[in-house]
């Protein structure tokens, strides 16, 4: 159990498949957070994974924060915090648009 957030230690995430060692899993977490940043930025949100707590920290530009366990929780929290639907498969994020809103 994490003393910082109260979440139990996660067994791993599917995006970490192939990460054989703890440093590899940590790099996968950091990479996942980097991929989330431009998507969430378009909705006025930020994502951070410092590797210390099991989860991803999501914040509004005004400072409201939440720690989520996984990507499923992240999208739900992002929609609540943004006050509108969040579509990570929008063409502007996957190479079919202008890359921004």
Automatic annotation (TrEMBL):
Domain of life of the native organism: Bacteria
Name the record gives this protein: Uncharacterized protein
UniProt source species: Inquilinus limosus MP06
Lineage: Bacteria, Pseudomonadati, Pseudomonadota, Alphaproteobacteria, Rhodospirillales
């Amino acid at each position: 159990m994490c003393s910082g957030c109260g979440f139990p230690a996660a067994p791993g995430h599917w995006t970490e498949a192939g990460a054989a060692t703890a440093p590899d899993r940590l790099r996968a977490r950091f990479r996942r957070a980097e991929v989330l940043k431009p998507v969430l930025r378009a909705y006025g949100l930020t994502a951070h994974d410092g590797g210390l707590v099991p989860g991803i920290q999501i914040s509004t530009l005004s400072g409201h924060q939440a720690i989520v366990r996984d990507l499923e929780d992240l999208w739900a929290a992002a929609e609540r915090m943004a006050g509108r639907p969040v579509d990570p498969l929008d063409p502007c994020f996957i190479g079919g648009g202008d890359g921004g809103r």
